[in-house]
Every structure is written in C-alpha cells, then in structure tokens.
Amino acid sequence: MFTRLLWKLLRASRGRLVVALVALVSGAAVISALLNLQFDIERKLTQEFRTLGANLVIAPSHEAQSIGSGADSPALMDQAAVLSQLEKMRTQQVVAAAPYLYIIAQVKTKPVIVAGTWLGEAIKLAPTWKIAGSRVASREDVTSCLVGRNVAQRLKLAPGAQLELNYLGRTARMTVAGIVDAGGAEDNQVLVNLRVTQELAGLTGQIGLVQLSINGTPKTITAYAQRLATALPSFEVRPIRQVTEAEGELLSRIRLLILSMVLLILVLTGLCVLATMAALAMERREDVGLMKTLGGSIRRIVGLFLAEVGVLGAVGGFAGCIAGITLSHWMGQRVFGTAISTRWEIFPLTVALMVGAALAGALPLRRLGNVKPAVILRGE
C-alpha cells in the first residue's frame, strides 16, 4: 500500500517534481565531477610536478663542504657508497636518479661548464627538455654529448659536430648528439657521460651530488628522504623545497576550492528543492486533511512525503553522477591533457549527498502534519 501511494504521489505532481529533479541532477553532475577530480587530482598534480625536474638531492654533508671549501676542490662523495645504497632503496616511487660531477673545461680557449651524468636518467629527470638531434640513453656511450642551446650558439655547434674538451692537460673528444633547450641551467652546460668527466678531472669514482625525482605527495617525498638520510648518515639528503612546498600548497588550495564548491552547490540545490516543495506543500493540504480523516497517522503521512523526496534525491544523484563522470573526463583532458580516472566510490557518495540535500529541502512538507482535517473539509 505504501509503495502504491508513493508511486501515485510521484505521478500526481510531475510538473513540480521535474523542476526539483532537474535541480538535483544538475547539482549531482557538478558535485560528482568535482569529487572525481578531487580523488584523482593528487596523482595528476604529482605527474605534472614531476615534469619540473628533480625534487630530492643527495649532497656532501655540511662538514665535508666546510673542509672542501678550504681546499682546491669542493667536497665530493664516493660514487659506489651512495649509489649502492640508493639502489637497495629504489622503489616504484623513484622516477629517475642521476649522479652529477661538474667541472669547468675549455673549448677553443673558451670556458664551459661540463656536467658529467647518466644522460638517460638526466632526460627522465626533466622530460620537458626539447632536444634537437638525437638522445643519448646508454651509460656506455662515452663519445657522445648533449650541448645546451646557449653553449651551442656561442660555439656555433650543431648535431653531429665535433667537440674537444680540455681540462688540466687532459682532453676528451666528443660528438654532439643533440642540442638541449631546457629553459634552465642546462642551457649553459655541456652534458657528457659521468665517466668522461671523472677521467678529465682525475676523480675516478667521485661525484658531486645525486638528483632524484620521487613520485608522490610532499609527505611521501619527505618520508622517503628521511629513510634515505638514515641509510646515508654521512651525506645530506634534502627535498628541493621550491618544488615540494609549491606542490603541497597548490594541492591544499585546490582541495579547499573543490570542497567549497561542493558545499555551495549542495546549498543551492537544497534551496531549489525547498522552493519547489513549499509550493507542493500548499497543493497537498487537502490530501493530507483527507488522509488524517481516514485515520492516517502524522508519522506515516510525513514519512510518505519524505520517501517521495528521497526517491527524487536518489534518482537525481545517480543520473547526475553519470553525467558528472563524463564532465570530469572532459575537465581532465582540458586541464591535464589526460582523462581523469573514474572513481566508483563517488556514486554512493553523490547519491547520499543528493538524498540529504533533497530531505533538507523538504522541510516545508513536515508542516503538513499541522493540517487540521476539519478546516480542510470545510474548505477553509
């Protein structure tokens, strides 16, 4: 009986209920899109920040730097000690890790900064590099190098050109594989195989620092840095604050914005349902009076109307959630260039929020319990 009455109520006021249903579907679509974006924004934002380069550095300790500053050469680290420990702790979070050794060599009597590294890993650290020519991926290639665009312009170099590096009476002849446009310090450097720089400087097995790109939130990066610092107590392990802090601050602001928008849309949806239900309550005063005359209890009558509103909220929430998933995919393509992954947990969450907003907007229906049957039957 209850189900039959509920079905007749839904059919009897289709005009006004459609207005409330449209408001619920619209609100659910936007809310589900924002919630889907909220659940996946951390992964997408992390991917975007990884294109900025390294976010963790292993360097000599302050004591070693102080000792090195008083000598002819800066403080260095033992390559085997650092990289062996780093290899043991390497997880899926580590996108790339590249050791570096810097020297200032001579090319045609002109000084240039030479960065010895693993070129394949260095390119992974900064995937936004634009390289004219070919890449150098092999760690065994000691004859090819990459040249920053400013150095290439100053020395008039192009891919395939020969380059001779001179340092402390030692010489290394290289072939320019590609010209790097990095938009940073690399534009003023010559990037060569780490072993080439070590042989030029006579520092076999020595490195100046290690740069890492760690995938994850700022907390994840900090936690990994702490574990690495425990494993390498003789060295300094520190996150690059400009990257990690900017990522954490931006993530917090986006989450706050999404939460504020969800709350605002819930309020507006509830107000729209409230206006519709206020008009509907005036129309149903006679029905309520007749129900009371026939012996219907206030609890069952109000429960019947609230069930009607709850059904509207569930239907509107589910239909809007389907549209919201499509909307979130479109937003992902426009903002991040890739689709946002569908998070199925937003379906029950969105439906629950819409049912709650609909019930909150149905407050005028509760006043129907105060209707006096005698007054209604007299036509007053």
What does this structure look like?
With 380 residues, the protein is an alpha+beta fold. The chain is 57% helix and 19% strand. The protein is built from 14 helices and 12 strands. The strands form 2 sheets. Strands 1, 3, 4, 5, 6, 7, 8, 9, 11 and 12 form a 10-stranded mixed β-sheet that branches. A two-stranded antiparallel ribbon has the order 2-10. Strand 7 and strand 8 (170-181) form a beta hairpin. Helix 2 crosses helix 12 and helix 9 packs across helix 12. It is elongated, with a radius of gyration of 33 Å. Residues 66-71 have low confidence and may be disordered.
Topology:
Layout: H1 2-12, H2 14-50, E1 56-60, H3 62-69, E2 77-78, H4 79-88, E3 94-107, E4 110-117, H5 119-125, E5 130-133, E6 144-148, H6 149-155, E7 162-167, E8 170-181, E9 189-193, H7 194-201, E10 206-207, E11 209-214, H8 218-231, E12 235-239, H9 241-283, H10 285-293, H11 298-335, H12 346-361, H13 363-366, H14 373-377
Parallel strand pairs: 4-9, 6-8
Antiparallel strand pairs: 1-11, 1-12, 2-10, 3-4, 3-11, 5-8, 6-9, 7-8
